[in-house]
Amino acid sequence: MKNKKLWGGRFQAETHADVDEFLASVQVDQALAQDDITGSIAHAAMLAHCGIITQEEYDILQNGLLAVKKDIDAGEAKFTIADEDVHMNIERMLTEKVGEVAGKLHTARSRNDQVALDVHLYLRREVLTIIDLLNQLRSVLIQKAAEHEQVILPGYTHLQRAQPIRLAHHFLAYAAMFERDAIRLKNNWAQINISPLGAAALAGSSFKTDPAYTAKLLGFDGTYANSLDAVSDRDFMVEFLSCASLIMMHLSRFSEELILWSSQEFAFIQLDDAYCTGSSIMPQKKNPDVPELMRGKTGRVYGDLISLLTTLKGLPLAYNKDMQEDKEPLFDAVKTVKASLAIFAPLIETLKINADKMQKAVKDGFLNATDLADDLAKAGMPFREAHRVSGEMVAHCIQKNCY
Prior knowledge:
- This protein has 403 residues and is mostly helical.
- The chain has helices spanning 17-23, 26-29, 33-49, 55-73, 86-98, 111-147, 167-192, 211-217, 227-232, 235-261, 289-312, 327-350, 355-363, 369-378, 383-399; strands at residues 152-157, 160-166, 269-270, 352-353.
- The strands form two sheets. It has a two-stranded antiparallel ribbon.
- Strand 1 and strand 2 form a beta hairpin.
- Helix 6 (111-147) packs parallel to helix 12 and helix 14 packs antiparallel against helix 15 (383-399).
- The termini are far apart.
């Protein structure tokens, strides 16, 4: 029996059902359906522009692809593992809509440059969304800092009270971190916004195509200079996962402080009830589950980064089936970062500041010892001597229990 796959002309037997299931990625890469259709319409427009297909054929393909998109958006499209991935599923749906002309859509294109294009389109969009979420969080922090400009609390080193600082200073430190995160993503976006279409499987196409035309239609800044690189490059994904890991690390550090500060031992803040949960057995409990889970999800995104790096580390050029595994960590990290940022901003916006508790903490622990040493140094004493004198005064007060 001949193989009925779209690529099955060379094969004399059907693929084993277990192999179909093992190789299928459509359960994951359905997330690329919107981008696959967008890229296919642009590719068809380029084929018509170059005279490879007729304008009439382009119109049929475009209308058919839009009809497929409508079915997908309405939840009426049926994806099957027999068609392996989102690309082959959409091509099958298109064939059902428009007939044999659908077979012309894949002219001068491979699934290798097709999937690379889809991921570029997907990540380009998602990065802009995450930048927007970072800016929203920064705005909340800046506003919170302005509202509590006069609140003083201990600054910490080694989790020991160190020097008095403004709460605004503390909030703005995180605002600066999230600003750097946004800058990194903007730099990453420049690497994402390059079109791989036209590379085909790895060596381009014998058809006289115009990759620059397609890139312009899709809003890319340009095309890859090397076709081998175009289909094998996943650096832009690794860079994104690195940026995502840093975002989560910053959220995790902030979450750790919120967990500490909301404890009865600190009582510096109160988290809004809407962002906490209770205990199944202890009625009095108010658990900071949102920042705790944020802290936990950070490890998940780190795992996404390591997963992709490990997948790529031994691959020869150009495309290898291993690269099918690049999407799950990418999609997971995008989902996790977006959800984390979206919930963190209102959590910060609604938390209550216990300024009196912070002020009381400043009065204990000799937090002005450095200022005393500085004053002695300003009066002419060598700073190391001033440091010793100030330290001895602290020790004397502790011994005499005078705080």
